[in-house]
Amino acid sequence: MAELPVLVGAHVDAPTSLDEARAVGIHAVQIFIGDPQGWKKPVLDFEGGPTALREALGEAGVTAYVHAPYVINVASTNNRIRIPSRKLLNQTLHAAAEIGAAGVIVHGGHVTADDDPGQGYENWYKAVEGAEIEVPMLIENTAGGAHAMARELSSLEALWAAISAADGFDRVGFCLDTCHAFAAGLDLATVLDDVRAITGRLDLVHLNDSRGEAGSGADRHASLGKGLIEPDRLAALVRDAGVPAILETPGGIEERRADLAWLREHL
Questions:
Q1: Which residue of 12, 26, 167, 216 is most buried, as measured by CB atoms within 10 A?
Q2: Domain count within the chain
Q3: Does any domain span residue 3?
Q4: What range does the domain containing 23 cover?
Q5: What is the pTM of this model?
Q6: Is residue 2 part of a domain?
Q7: What is the pLDDT of residues 48-79, one digit of tens each?
Q8: What are the CB-based long-range contacts (under 8 Å, 24+) for 224-231?
Q9: Looking at the domain assignment, is residue 237 inside a domain?
Q10: Is residue 254 part of a domain?
Q11: For the segment 92-138, what is each residue's pLDDT rounded down to a tens digit?
């Protein structure tokens, strides 16, 4: 079986993460630690706890990433959202460090129509400044939202300008989601250069096709080759990015195997 030119993994369930990795034939996984839709302190669902998973990952030669809970929005001007978000993000970073994760992926968040976007960027600066970034924190671009912090290139530029002055900025990276970029209306032919020109780096790709139209703002992932992104363009993104890629496509083990087969054919 042909080797892929980059490390490719998939989002899997934490308790069965290594079993799924072996079944699919991948050497990277992404997991949630705790409830992705809740505010409770992250608790790893893996027999033996964080130490056991860290050792098992090392023995299997599998790289792990952690996706932060979806509820986190450190940009928010609402104290009841922003303050718990910062706390939960820090707890997630610590939990990820316990398993030896390569990074924590967190969405850029948003402000409301009544807010000054500049306050959202300032809140991001404070979040980075106040965080104990024990593993790299990778900010992910989002598909929709007129007041999102990391949807448009202009908003991403403003975000990076704000956080670049924070202590710990050197531990902040970027995760490009291909479905989100397409749905946001970004030009996939130039997006890698565009992002690197702003952030100076690219750390991870979330590799997803899109069921939504270009520019629709719809976060609707599709299996590779089953969506609306031009196949050669999607494959070129993976090849040219040159960084690990994580599949967040629908389905289970068989669908993941089909995604990998698609990648091998197109790369």
A1: 12
A2: 1
A3: no
A4: 8-266
A5: 0.97
A6: no
A7: 999 999 999 999 999 999 999 999 999 999 99
A8: 224/249, 224/258, 224/259, 224/262, 224/263, 225/262, 225/266, 227/179, 228/182, 229/178, 229/179, 229/182, 229/188, 230/188, 231/266
A9: yes
A10: yes
A11: 999 999 999 999 999 999 999 999 999 999 999 999 999 999 999 99
